[in-house]
Amino acid sequence: MNRKKSIGYYRRALELIPGGVNSPVRAFKAIGIPPVFIDRARGAKIWDVDGNEYVDYVGSWGPMIMGHAHPRIVSALKKAAPRGTSFGAPTPLEVELAIRVRKAFPSMETLRMVSSGTEAVMSAIRVARGYTGRNKILKFEGCYHGHGDSLLVKAGSGATTFGIPDSLGVPEDLAKHTLNAPYNDLERVKALVNQYPEQIACIIVEPIAGNMGVVLPEKGFLEGLRGICDERRILLVFDEVISGFRAAYGGAQELYGIKADLTCLGKIIGGGLPVGAYGGKEKIMERVAPLGGVYQAGTLSGNPLAMAAGIEALEILKSKKIYQDLEKKTTYLTERISESAEEQGIPVSINRATGMLTVFFTESPVRDYASAKTSDTKRFAKFFIEMLEQGIYLPPSQFEAWFISLVHTQKDLDKTAEACDTAFRKI
Ligand code: KE4
User: Fold this and answer.
1) CATH 3.30.300.180 correct for 4-65+319-426
2) Which of 116, 123, 157 to mutate to test the pocket of ligand 1 (most atoms within 8 A of CB)?
């Protein structure tokens, strides 16, 4: 494929923006080729600035579950924009979105809108610390919860991709309060909780992990965390920035029937515009300013355009059939890829949840960070390039999730499976 214009834009961007990108994973660093610059997108397709068309499995890293440039979202924005783009004052739209979020996540008795998943998690951690008076937090290796200082300790997603799971610039005095356990390892959690009695404010987990690639909670894991938190008065924080409104309308909490004390959302609830949200039990959230002493604020929090897009997104998704169809598409694609890899003798391990999957280039089952990292990242890079050449745009890292939308057609899925056949043959 000719990508001359992308390369030109990349050269220009490199003079202006660190790595030429506004978020590290976009740089294709783990792949070793220049990133493509996108011109436009519609439905399940994106086009780069050289006019090349791709079936898109990045989906803006999760938000575009309803497809790019969805007519209902575009028209909601066209209606909202002429009324003003930001007021820094409360609007009915924020109430409308909050109503819909709470209906889907009843554990979020009260909630606050922010402008990113990072902000949602940062704020939830601060509330947990303020509410419990404790400083330590416990997270899981390979989980990524945005780039808040306390969370960049053994973090997944881009931090793992670039081998900097412990970022520079995070003071040791702060990082020492972040404890890590392997995902799915309740024994280790119990040991840490016993080692630091009354010192852990919260346990934060991606209840369906997406940032070491997709890793599912094993039977009893989430229930076990709930039990430990109840027993030791630790808050359970579910980071559902990916799984919320994707794995199910009510996220992992609906799927597994477990209520978190605090929940963080993002991505889909903005319909492609910058929105995050955090919320939980009223008695916890009433510590948040202006009611209580935990300060959190944001100029563009509850931005009317973002709210309009988010409301429309949740309206579009509010149907059981949608998730049944998405589940069928996910199963179909997973099975086709698995069959193809088997036929070609390529060892892969595929993990999936509704609307998301990861093809790990390893033969061992992937149940945590350590097993995810047995994957052959060089082989993944070759696979990525072969797929890109065939018009399939995957997340440019082994440690990310492929996102399927409501509007990926059977034809798109078959094209993807056939591209896998070819790519597996070549790598
Ligand atoms: P943002 O600040 O990027 O909106 O959200 C942070 C975040 C929090 N929690 C979870 C579970 C997340 O997956 C994320 C962000 N996800 C990554 C992709 N895995 C965003 C892509 C990027 O960093 O550019």
Assistant:
1) no
2) 157
